[in-house]
Queue: 4 jobs
Job 1
Amino acid sequence: MTFTPETEKRLQDIWARYPQGRKRSAVIPMLMYAQDELGMVTQELVAEVAQRCEVSPLQVEEVVGYYSMLNKQKMGKHHVQVCTNIACLLMGGEELWQHTTKRLGIGHKQVTADGLISLEEVECAGACSWAPCVVDGYEYHHHMTIEKLDQLLDSIQKKVQ
Ligand code: FES
């Protein structure tokens, strides 16, 4: 499978971090970096990562099935995750989620018609101390408010104008 030179370098860098016999530890980051380029995890990618990490395709499939950040359907250029688990819920996460779905006109794991933004309601983004939390790609936004969320979505949408 051929990737852009940037993605290929990321895959090789991550692969080189793990000693022989422990290459399986590179499965998740490899899938995530490749997903960044492809927008989703394809069957071809599963086979590629299995071969590179010296595990079976079934083992890679199990990882893909377990982790919600790995998507078998094409996500938007910006994948926005809104946490509604307990810490965020208590700090307004549900209101943020409702506001975002209304503003974008899409729901959980759906993509805007222009393919720019996909949305996901997540159980915990691992940033409970800074709740409520919204994540855009790998970028965390803490102590989120509806105003700050609108600014984030505005900035994403302005980038393509
Ligand atoms: S509950 Fe939202 S980040 Fe943990």
Note: The domain at 5-66 is CATH 1.10.10.1590 (Arc Repressor Mutant, subunit A).
Job 2
Amino acid sequence: MKVAIIGAGNMGGAIARGLAQGSLVKCHDIIVSDLSQDKLSQLQTDYPEVKTTTNNQKAVDEANLIFLVVKPWLVKSVLEELHFTKDKVLISVASGVEIKELSEYLSVDIPIYRMIPNTAISELAGVCLLSSSSAVSSELTHSILNVLNEMGMAMLIPESKLAAATALTSCGIAYVFKYVEASVKAGVELGFSAQDSIRMISQTIDGAAKILLNNETHPSLEIDKVTTPGGITIKGINELEHAGFVSAIIRAIKASS
Ligand SMILES: NC(=O)c1ccc[n+]([C@@H]2O[C@H](COP(=O)([O-])OP(=O)(O)OC[C@H]3O[C@@H](n4cnc5c(N)ncnc54)[C@H](OP(=O)(O)O)[C@@H]3O)[C@@H](O)[C@H]2O)c1
């Protein structure tokens, strides 16, 4: 697979770095396009084999899988300036721009996907939500999911549920950081450095995630295992309940969807 990434900002750069670390797409088969030479130069310093250009059409011509990673309000103008041949596949990463709109901006009928990643793809631990137009083959979708799985976990989601799933994953990562930020404040008050607090809390989150991902279990069961009757953990859990922690998380996720 030859891949083009149009837009080398936060997310486009993370996708390029994530793909470059995987095995299914070779670095020399990735071409990244951006208006800013500075961003491209930074990327090439990190991954010298990745090709870069300031010409979007050149990137499209050299690839068959094209990730569009510009801001949503630029999607129309960027796509309308480009010429796609029938052998191309478009994956738009722009939030909120529907497949129907994307197809209207293209002059040819090609397979179109929307993808919503979260920022952890740069660490190969992201979530990539993928939705497709109806006119795509299951083989193509399977190949794309394989590529995306190398950056963490990829899931096929109906487009109608993409916004809700985005709240859990792309917005959700910010809520996890908020939990870490709050815990660090507590850690510092208890006498640990911020850096030590971050290491302890992050490893704890990583461990909790692995327990849930590697076993058929549920958070309530895992909480039950660590709350000894009359012990310190249940005191803390009940403080969270009194402070409205569960309600706050539900409201945050619903507000973001
Ligand atoms: N960040 C996230 O967590 C996240 C999550 C899911 C989806 N997304 C989506 O990802 C997209 C990109 O977001 P971002 O945060 O990566 O934005 P960003 O950092 O601003 O990156 C966009 C990049 O595209 C470049 N660009 C602008 N016009 C261009 C053109 N005509 N041709 C080629 N490149 C062009 C920009 O250059 P200049 O800076 O010079 O304008 C910038 O480097 C958005 O549509 C967003 O909805 C982001």
Note: The chain is about 50% helix and 15% strand.
Job 3
Amino acid sequence: MRLIEKECPNCGAELHFTKEDTSCKCEYCKREFEIERDTDKKRVVDQYILSELKTPFKIFSFFTVGNFFVQAVIIIVTFLIIVILGYNIIKGLNDSNSIFNRNANLITNISDLSNSDYSTLDLNSKILISNETSGITGSYTNKGSFKREKLYIISNEKTNYLIPIYKTTYEYFSNGSDKHTLYIPIVFKNVRKRNNSIAFYLDNGKISAPEYHFNEDNYSYGYTDFDTLYNEIIKKYEKDYKIIEK
Ligand SMILES: [Zn+2]
């Protein structure tokens, strides 16, 4: 079968195709062409009209321009832009200084909190405490005593900690006089308020306390006295943070 030779309309390289072909691709510039035949023309080569094939992915054809180095740079730069944008969008959800989250404010004062914020705080704390202690305390159960004794708002310009401290009582299941009262501190970091709610920023709370052993087998988290808790949890912030106690 005789090959027809014609110049690539894009780069001038030689293109080869047969009479039967309806399209062809340039080996050099990788462009694809549709082949039309005009039988009025006398020269065989002139009878074939090549027009660039329109494919749905034509937008990517610019990658065929330039050498490997240029293509690599375009891909790396595009990748970096995506990574930087993605990082900033995710960071923006947590960072009040981000351009993506201008409306979120770090809570630094008691007056920043509303009654519904306190309920959110208590509810999340209660869930955390029961997740951490249930099953671990074995025969000891929390008899419903769960009260926020104090709340600390500890902050500087960039970071804050909301530390509510709960007083809970655990009793041995068959012996009400075997009772243990514990102070349990929950540490919520970088609590922000947005659209008048702190609800979306409370998912990283941690119980910050030693394990307190009721006896050799059963234990829960907490401090038996408040002063030890203050010295171990709150005092370490005194140097670098503003501490508000309520
Ligand atoms: Zn070409």
Note: The chain has three domains: 4-64, 66-102, 105-245.
Job 4
Amino acid sequence: MFEGAGGNEVVRVAERAVPEPGPGEVLVRVRRVGLNPADIAQREGRYPPPAGAPADIGGIEVCGTVERCGPGVVRWRTGDRVFGLVDGGGFAERVVAEDRCLAPVPDELGDDEAAAIPEAFITAHDALATVGRLRPGDRVLVNGANGGVGAAALQLVAAFGGTAVGTSRSATGLEHIRALGAEALAQEELLAGDVDRLGRFDLVIELVGGPNLARLPSVLAPRGRIVVVGVAAGDAVELALRPFIRLRASLTGTNLRNRPPEEKALAVQAFAHEVVPLLARRRLVAHVEACFPHTEAVAAFERLASSGKRGKVLLGFPDGADG
Ligand SMILES: NC(=O)c1ccc[n+]([C@@H]2O[C@H](COP(=O)([O-])OP(=O)(O)OC[C@H]3O[C@@H](n4cnc5c(N)ncnc54)[C@H](OP(=O)(O)O)[C@@H]3O)[C@@H](O)[C@H]2O)c1
């Protein structure tokens, strides 16, 4: 939990009452949770959670087993392995989730890999397929592609018949992008390179923001789409608008956590139907940078904030037998 707002000095392990699942909700016994930049923003007091979610417990995705179902839940039974999204409170041994915001974990996936999937793959799939209207043959640029969402996006582009190019600011990040089978481009090359060399993109998934955005209109293909998902490098830019008119291009933002529950459930169920089978067949894989015991949450936050990660940072909770 977070005792106030700030840096890692506000991170504590504490006892809380077990939450009660209401209608349409299930109580999940958490095995692993992925950490996200949103958790850092919440810890720092910059990102209040949606109404009803605890402000002092981070954790927006979970992997575990169903412990108890609330009234009216028919989709799940006690003991089912599930992963999915929660509005908050995931950094805990138990959390309440909406039944429709969970998906079944395929037998082929262990807990670590499963926990590295929901937020990254649901965000990437929604940004590419639903918001970005990805089509087979599209050339797609993913900026900040060595992170959780970026690595998922690169693989999804290839699986859906597109060609992916990923940028990173670090050598280890570029290596990770190549290992995922995508073309790697140093961020400075994107910023400085001429269009003849870079080529044009049908779709851009922007996970970094800042100076990248100013560069993007000049590398868009006709009817190109820019989908802004993250702006860690800055959200104020000077943008040339003429290319949007000339190319009939578009610039869209998207957000998973704060959208209405029905729309969030749709994104999760689209993931369950279109992405989970590819994960089960090992056509897509999720990478884990490190898994820390929940008692070492500070070390996990430090790793999350470091540059050049090659996968997700997780927290692990003891199972029913050992805790
Ligand atoms: N809109 C939504 O619903 C939604 C959902 C999920 C995530 N997000 C946002 O999307 C972004 C990516 O999430 P993630 O889970 O993939 O995070 P992540 O695993 O931490 O990856 C972040 C990526 O952005 C790069 N990056 C961060 N700051 C940078 C900077 N100042 N200059 C250049 N590159 C920078 C990182 O490079 P290094 O490895 O070198 O640090 C890495 O490639 C985050 O901003 C996150 O908040 C939004």
Note: The pocket of NAP is lined by residues 36-38, 119-120, 123, 144, 146-150, 168-170, 173, 187, 207-208, 229-230, 232-233, 254-257, 307-309 (CB under 6 Å).
